[in-house]
Amino acid sequence: MCGIIGYVGSRTAVPILLDGLRTLEYRGYDSAGIYVPGHSPVKAVGPIDNLAAKFAESIPGTTGIAHTRWATHGAPTEANAHPHLDMSGSIALAHNGIIENFRELREGLISQGIKFDSETDTEVLAKLIGTLYQGDLLKAVQDSLSLVRGTYGIIVTSTHHSDKIVTARLGSPVVIGLGIDGNLISSDPSALLAHTKDVVYLEDGECAVVTKDAYEILTLKGKRLTKTPETVELEVEAVQKQGYDHFMLKEIFEIPEVIENTIRGRQILSKGKVKLGGLDGVFSKLTSASRLMIVGCGSAYYAGQVGRYLLEEYAGLPTEVELGSEYRYKRNLPDKESAVIVVTQSGETADTLASVRSAKEQGILTLGIVNAVGSTIARETEAGIYNHAGPEIAVASTKAFISQLTVFVLLTVLLARERGMSLEEGKKIVEELNNLPDLIRKYLKNTSDIKTVAKKYAGYRDAMFIGRKFHAPIAYEGSLKLKEVTYIHAEAYAAGELKHGSIAMLDENFPIVALVPQDDVYEKMISNIEEVRARKAPVLAIATKGDKHISEVADDVLFVPKVHPILQPIVSTIPLQLLAYYIGVEKGLNVDRPRNLAKSVTVE
To answer: In this structure, what are the phi and psi dihedrals at residue 295, rounded to the nearest 5 degrees?
Structure first.
């Protein structure tokens, strides 16, 4: 969840660290801090600008570590902000992750006379390293981590070793950037792009000593390793707003390009087929699978739910969907004829990664739908499909979610054509998918109707989203977006479930957002809307352009283009994303960085 960055080189460290923290702020923005050897840590609560304001003049020093925090243990305060120091004040540590046995470690250190200044688990690790330090910083880190249970991506430096940074990872990402005037360490390669595209990823159980001109990678037990640097293909401009007021709006308007990038080179239009090169090595196993299990968290879970409907409807393939936070703990019966597909934007989601490892232990084929190239899940799954959605900076997922839906359309056609889908149907889908980006570009040229509706609904305290079949998961995703971005209490239900209890909440102050495209459950949805109207709840309908009846039963309507049913969830999602965005802006909220949230959930 948190962001870490370190620099050791020939330039003044603080400006480099501040710029890196601004890039990493989406990972956590409760507090932030910087440590340069020979100086006290500088910390601030709130956004990075609050920290930057404390540097009227940049303090000297060409080595430093920094941290932006998403609070787990302890409230967002300066005392709890990282980096944390050991008892001597000479060793500093920044940490992304959770030390699970910090309480017992803390008690042992207190018995040795060690005093603590914060409520955090991280300070325990800093103090532990200090007690084990005997002149060799790397060994002190290795010895300390052998006593730790939990997850970590850490960077450590010291006044005794101001020309080096020690880093290590277990369950939280760490990447080393190889620059011209120095080297860097970060939890995300995006923070390195202003300085280098040449990187080395650490794997779990690995550590490294990084200096100005070199780096050495080892296992935690001291075995030296050799790794070949990789090149990051992202551009700096990709993580900048480029004239938009917010990253969230920019990323919604990038959706047409994202779909193009997701489908590029993957369609065989003349044959109505799809080719997914990342699955070539496991294609026979996948096509012979008797069952699929899709695993994800948050928006990725809802994308998986749509994927289930598509795969069962068009490919006739039994499919289940599990939350990553539950799959990893439930008893999953071994089934060598099934496959697990994990869905994740960051490729670092802790619960999803644990699910991958659980499935692999049982010998189940593991596949990934991942946006972040080089991420842990991308490396640990046996095969997969990259989204190619580009970096997503706003905390609320928009374009990555659309890319995930698009991948599920591709995967469905791939498997359905192997399992009996006709050439005609296959061609119809891939041709419409090929035309979808231009259709959405045209749709996005005028969003004034969504802005108008957003002003009206921004004043409500509650909302409910309903949909059926392919659009039931989209209702949940729309509800999640509204909660994340506006803090309006929102719920979602498969529309047929309203009468089984939740309809009791409805009155004139509890609006309903109804997903009602003209599909094979349209009449059922109209009946559900009538049930809502009878309870005097306002109705906002997301309906197909040209539907002349919907205005008779809904108070407000947002029309979307009509497309093939397999693509309709993609189109219907966009007004829900924009609705949440415009309501959040209307309420004066920071829609890119909602309170209490972070982009990459690397804690459990």
So the answer is: -125, 135
SS3 assignment, position 434: helix
pLDDT attached to residue 323? 94
Annotated catalytic residue: which of 2, 43, 273, 562? 2
| Token digits of residue 587 | 């309420």
Question: Which of 533, 273, 308 has its CA nearest to residue 413?
Answer: 273
The neighbour count for residue 395, using CB atoms within 10 Å, is 22
**Of 382, 387, 385, which is closest to residue 359 (Cα–Cα)?**
382
Beta bridge partners of 166: 156, 209
Task: Kindly tell me if the per-residue pLDDT of 534 is higher than 90.
Answer: no
What tokens appear for 92 in the block? 């500093």
User: By residue range, what is the domain housing residue 584?
Assistant: 446-594
In a domain, 279, yes or no: yes
Cβ atoms of 378 and 347 within 8 Å: the answer is yes
Whether 604 shows a pLDDT value over 90: the answer reads: no
Asked about 599 being catalytic, the answer comes back as: yes
462 and 397 share one domain: no
Domain assignment of residue 602, yes or no: no
Per-residue confidence (pLDDT) for residue 172, from 0 to 100: 84
The one catalytic residue in 164, 250, 273, 599 is: 599
The residue out of 190, 206, 238 marking a domain boundary is 238
The one-letter amino acid at 6 = G
Distance CA 350, CA 396 (A): 18
Tell me what pLDDT residue 238 has: 59
To the query of whether residue 139 is one of the catalytic residues in this protein, the response is no
DSSP code of residue 459: T
For residue 234, pLDDT over 70 is answered with no
In this structure, are 246 and 215 located in the same domain? Answer: no
* Domain membership flag for residue 108: yes
**Per-residue model confidence as pLDDT tens digits over 73-120:** 678 898 999 999 999 999 999 998 888 898 999 999 999 999 999 989
Dihedral over Cα of 61, 65, 68, 73: its sign: negative
Task: State residue 297's pLDDT score.
Answer: 93
Whether this prediction's pTM lies above 0.85 is answered by no
**Residue found under tokens 């507090």:** 31
In tens, the pLDDT along 444-466 reads 999 999 999 999 999 999 999 99
Q: Are residues 556 and 585 in the same domain?
A: yes
